[in-house]
Amino acid sequence: MKKHTSSKISNQGLGRLTGPVTVVDVIGCTDVNSTNYNSDAIVDDGSCVAMVPGCNDPSASNYNSLANSNDGSCAYLGCMDSNAINYNPSATADDGSCVGSSAGCTNNATYTYTGTSGNSQVYQAYLNYSPTYNIDDGSCIARVFGCMNPTAFNYNPAANTQPAGECIFVYPGCMDPNSCTYNSLATEDDGSCVACDDPLANNNDFNTVGCSAFCQYCLPVEQTPAITVVLGGLSQGDTVIDGLTVIEKITLV
């Protein structure tokens, strides 16, 4: 800024000024095409900055770091499909990123389950979860662990997830080890147990029939000595039953 002092008298309208007058010169950029043009400047100080038009928005796809004057050319890439879930209303150019809506179970929670086999495994907590869904429609189905085989001993009709080794199968049969029809593989007694039906065997059961092949004797049949069975009545002679001699005789009772 420059000051000029004058002792001359000058007329201002109808009045009259006397004494020194100071004139101020405003310095700055006087180029109207510069970005820092100063309309009040009288003296150009060489500070003018040339205008560089272009997009000066850093978020625009065509941002020009040298531009100092936005010319309205900024372009914004994005999805321009209003039906897509990632629609960008500010986009001026579609970049092909549009994602269509896909409804389903989006809950990706996990759960650790330890099965009857003793093995632990991490599962998705919901049976129908899929990372391809982008809209949750409330359709998530919680996992219910258990055996899904109806022939198994621990069958669970509510189960929808069966880990390996979960089922325990039922084997019906005779579970009495003293029975001649004992089945060591049986897990459920089916009432089929049958004992020995030989009255002379030490494991006889008079309520069963047809099971003499499993009878047990204190001595093998061929080594069993003759025994005397005392019966009331007259003697009818010796009777042989399964290799044993039964002697009937008259005995006072």
Write the layout of secondary structure elements.
Layout: E1 2-6, E2 11-12, E3 15-16, E4 21-25, E5 27-28, E6 43-44, E7 53-54, E8 69-70, E9 77-78, E10 93-94, E11 103-104, E12 110-114, E13 120-124, E14 135-136, E15 172-173, E16 188-189, E17 237-241, E18 244-248
Parallel strand pairs: 5-6, 7-8, 9-10, 11-14, 15-16
Antiparallel strand pairs: 1-4, 2-3, 12-13, 17-18
- Biggest sheet: strands side by side, in what order? 1-4
Task: Provide the residue-averaged pLDDT.
Answer: 78
**Oligomeric form:** single chain
The biggest beta sheet is recorded as: 2 strands, antiparallel
So how many helices?
A: 0
Strand content: 15-25%
Helicity level: under 10%
The SS-based structural class is mainly beta
Note poorly predicted spans.
Answer: 4-10, 226-237, 240-253
N-C termini distance:
158 Å
Q: Please provide the ordered H/E string of secondary-structure elements.
A: EEEEEEEEEEEEEEEEEE
Q: What is the rounded Rg?
A: 55 Å
Q: Tell me how many strands there are.
A: 18
Shape summary: rod-shaped
Structural description of this entry:
With 253 residues, this protein is mostly beta strands. Among the domains are: 2-51, no CATH class; 106-170, no CATH class; 225-253, no CATH class. The protein contains no helices and 18 strands. Strands 1-4 form a two-stranded antiparallel sheet. The relative contact order is 0.06.
